[in-house]
């Protein structure tokens, strides 16, 4: 009986414990399901499922003709997983020596033994061997294809351990051409956007596109895609920039900056009728590299005292208010006139004496213009300032691109106004204008008094489809009367025909404009340091204006020259000459012009199949009997085009002379070379000699004519 009771007691205790344990388990399950269920289900999903962002392709920024100004190119960072499941010690040891040799030859930065030591240590002597960086340099797609043929890397990622991380690099194919206007994006360490510059920043929302999401699920130890929301590519921005005109403006400005050892300068070309900016060049001397680069958008952002280009506004005010006529006389005396304690001087020693108002403008007489303005507005300066306001010289242009400098036109009674403000303002001092604001004013004269807002973008496209078109915008329909307009146009032409800019005159077409030379303040040193700014603003052809242009060059070497006609004028003329030569529509028709019939066109060298298509369309006969390759040299013989073989050996530097840029880039980049381009047209020179040896990734410069 005692034994039975003992057994029953023990069974009861065990039963009670089991019941209590079951109750605890059930309670815990209920608690987890009800109170912590969402949290644990999320954790489970995070282990078996994950979302991967699929980045959208950023849109391109293009020139008016569709040529790329900014585009995104994929680059790859090379890393290696030394603990990949299939990368056994035997496979690694068998391939490591060959891989080290290939890496050394490809990157050329260290010996094969150094690479072997790096790989060996990462595999056997490091605790951080799952995500090891192979080389700091990122590689392009063609280079990546070559790397994937290396020993070990040619195996699957599970066996070879190669990890390729793609990122897009924003590049501007035409280096330094309008780069500040095209712009860029500043990003922080977390890839967040912290700054916007130019069109890249302005159209960030249109360019960036919409990222997609790929849902991955772990199945049998592998991550596999189960659902994906595809990304939407960014839109393309079609600008008003003409690459050919931009190259001309950039080259002409650079040459003059170098010749006069100037600090910086800008040049802008605008289409008169629409306000479209066809070229905008900004170059400043970089103190670190001692080279001229696009370090700031001076054309848009730098407001300075314009000097004599401002005299156009003064003479327009006098004409519009009926105070003077171009034939009236003004006594400039010996070229020195005193306003209170300050002396006004003409650049011409001895002065011009008694001259007409038109001559005072054409010869840019400071004394003549300032005496006229002071004589008629001294007792009513507000009338003069109101005229300047009516010309819209006191307002910004409301540009879409950020960073526009503010114009400065003082008003009587404001701080800084004095008895000499009126005469000095009349010749472009005690006022401030940016180069683009000055250009808009001159462009309005060329456009029969209608002031246009500068526009930089023509269209927004998505995969070739136009989403938005930007129309021209009028800032002011009429600056002045037609009579005043007619008179100032004659004066502006007279500056080039008889005045301070006769060095710009040519027999092919007429130019109208105004020189400007201003002594500007040198930062904190004031005016005593004698820093000059040379400028020229105008339009061409003067009789039927198509384009307007302004050139401003800051701080030229005084010993070499600093006058507007001497420093800025030649840049204007170079731009105008080349734009005129490239724009056949501006050329006057020639009487009895003989047109020579050329049955067989001149052709670039290039790809045989592409040339065949073109010549077939033109009904041109081809002699290709000796050709057996894809690339050919072309020559014109009587009424046919004759092909000759051009041998392209990918192990030697290809010969691309005479080719168009498209074919040349295709051949050079497929050979593994990095290409930098200068100029336009066909290939004239290449920096690496054809047939010479090279290493993948070497840089080759090609010059186009």
Automatic annotation (TrEMBL):
Keywords associated with the record: Carboxypeptidase, Hydrolase, Membrane, Protease, Transmembrane, Transmembrane helix
Domain PASTA per the UniProt entry, residue ranges: 647-705
GO MF assignments: carboxypeptidase activity; penicillin binding
Compartments it resides in: Membrane
UniProt key word Transmembrane helix: yes
UniProt-listed Pfam families: PASTA, PBP_dimer, Transpeptidase
GO cellular component, one term: plasma membrane
Keyword DNA-binding set for record: no
Regions that span the bilayer: 12-31
Any one Gene Ontology BP term: cell wall organization
Entry-linked InterPro entries: Beta-lactam/transpept (IPR050515), Beta-lactam/transpept-like (IPR012338), PASTA_dom (IPR005543), PBP_dimer (IPR005311), PBP_dimer_sf (IPR036138), PCN-bd_Tpept (IPR001460)
SUPFAM superfamilies the record matches: beta-lactamase/transpeptidase-like, Penicillin binding protein dimerisation domain, Penicillin-binding protein 2x (pbp-2x), c-terminal domain
PANTHER family: PEPTIDOGLYCAN D,D-TRANSPEPTIDASE, PEPTIDOGLYCAN D,D-TRANSPEPTIDASE FTSI
Protein name listed in UniProt: PASTA domain-containing protein
Species, as recorded: Ancylomarina euxinus
